[in-house]
Design a protein that fits this description.
By secondary structure, the chain is of the alpha/beta class. The protein is built from 15 helices and 17 strands. The strands form 4 sheets. The chain has a 7-stranded parallel beta sheet, sandwiched between helices. The chain is elongated, with a radius of gyration of 22 Å. The two termini are 41 Å apart.
């Protein structure tokens, strides 16, 4: 099958959607399919051979984070050329309701189109206003996927219609068989806890963890906290500096380092305060054998099955987080049944399973035959887009 995948977010800056697109593409290629990915990326940026760079992006605040998007006439032209040259059996768009390459491709293309929705949020005024405008575009989508029940809820409440839930995927064995780094492994006297997330995004919960660490050290004096991720750590180093070597900032880590980190530590902590639709890092930590302690936001509660596969604490409650971490570190043997159950449960998220479910959606939408082609209506729509972008009406043009 010839498959075209569009990622709305920049491949210059790693993120959950980009990793999802990358891993799905690579597993599809490994199983014999032809795949091309169109994604924002600066010319000259190292990207996999199957990625077609679509140019630079603009940073846009979105859902408590910063999304780097590519949108406009030049991007539309590149998307059109990619679609014409690809002659795809199915087009798979990720996050098509944002002003991004995915939305442009949806405007331009017609035929078997699948869309994956990754975002989960509560009531959004912006989406409520945009919904009547994007709904005609959404009618072109022949198969909708949501990565979680939370993402599906967002689709239903904001956009109408429904979506089938196909979760994010993980290469489970890469984490289960990862090298255990001595520097990150815990001992009876010095157990280790890992946090992974962008340091400058409060919704990742590092402020909550920072408030809990001194309380944990009162109960477990030898505990070590390994904090990994992009962002400025100066403020946290200053506030936690008095704790000596109890806290280590690792900075950004590679995929291999992340796999090793999660296979080495005793506990993985996810104190995120919201804005999460799934919780892929929880699945990765469970695959590596770490016990997971996470806030009880809906997405994490679903992944941990209400506490069956890890420990949950009330969102934003540093004292409760400290108690949950202390309990997990004081008696690590008591967490073994939970970790064993989690190691079995994560097999459901392995890419060998998830890709099969995605392919089932592809096969359903392509059952009537035909290839993706340019929608005859798209030239008019994109013409109006160009006019709107430069402030002129079609008559003025």
């Amino acid at each position: 099958m010839r498959i075209g995948i569009v990622c709305g977010y920049s491949f210059d800056v790693p993120g959950g959607v980009q990793f999802h697109v990358r891993d799905l593409a690579e597993h599809l290629i490994a199983t014999g399919h032809e795949v091309s990915v169109l994604a924002p990326a600066e010319e000259g940026t190292p990207v996999p051979d199957y990625v077609v760079p679509a140019g630079r992006t603009v940073a846009v605040p979105y859902n408590g984070s910063v999304a780097r998007l590519n949108f406009g006439p030049v991007a539309a032209s590149r998307a059109r050329r990619w679609l014409e040259e690809g002659d795809f059996d199915v087009l798979h768009l990720h996050e098509p309701i944002q002003p991004s390459l995915s939305m442009l491709a949806l405007w331009i293309a017609d035929g078997p189109i699948v869309a994956t929705f990754h975002t989960a949020m509560n009531r959004s005024r912006a989406l409520q206003v945009a919904s009547p405008l994007v709904r005609p575009l959404l009618e072109k989508i022949t198969g909708r996927i949501a990565v979680s029940e939370e993402a599906r809820r967002t689709v239903v409440e904001h956009l109408g219609g429904d979506a089938v839930v196909v979760p994010n995927g993980v290469f489970v064995d890469r984490f289960a068989q990862a090298h255990r780094a001595e520097a990150w492994c815990g001992t009876d006297e010095r157990p280790t806890v890992a946090f992974l997330g962008r340091l400058d995004e409060p919704r990742k919960g590092l402020p909550v963890l920072a408030a809990a660490i001194p309380q944990v050290l009162e109960q477990v004096p030898g505990a070590r906290f390994l904090i990994a991720g992009r962002g400025e750590a100066a403020d946290y180093r200053q506030s936690l500096g008095h704790l000596g070597d109890a806290v280590t900032f690792l900075g950004p880590v590679s995929d291999l380092e992340k796999e090793s980190l999660l296979a080495s530590v005793d506990v993985y902590v996810a104190p995120h305060t919201g804005g999460e639709s799934f919780g892929i890092v929880l699945v990765e930590a469970m695959s590596g054998g770490a016990h997971v302690v996470a806030s009880d936001i809906p997405a994490f509660r679903a992944v941990l099955d209400g506490g069956r596969y890890g420990s949950l604490f009330p969102n934003g409650d540093a004292r409760a987080l400290a108690a949950a971490l202390s309990a997990s570190l004081v008696d690590r043997e008591a967490t073994r049944p939970v970790r064993d159950a989690a190691a079995a449960a994560v097999r459901r998220y392995d890419w060998s399973v998830v890709t099969g479910e995605v392919l089932a959606v592809y096969e359903t939408v392509t059952a009537s035959g035909g290839h993706v082609h340019e929608d005859a209506r798209s030239r008019t729509v994109v013409g109006r887009l160009r006019a709107a972008l430069d402030g002129r009406t079609e008559a003025e043009r």
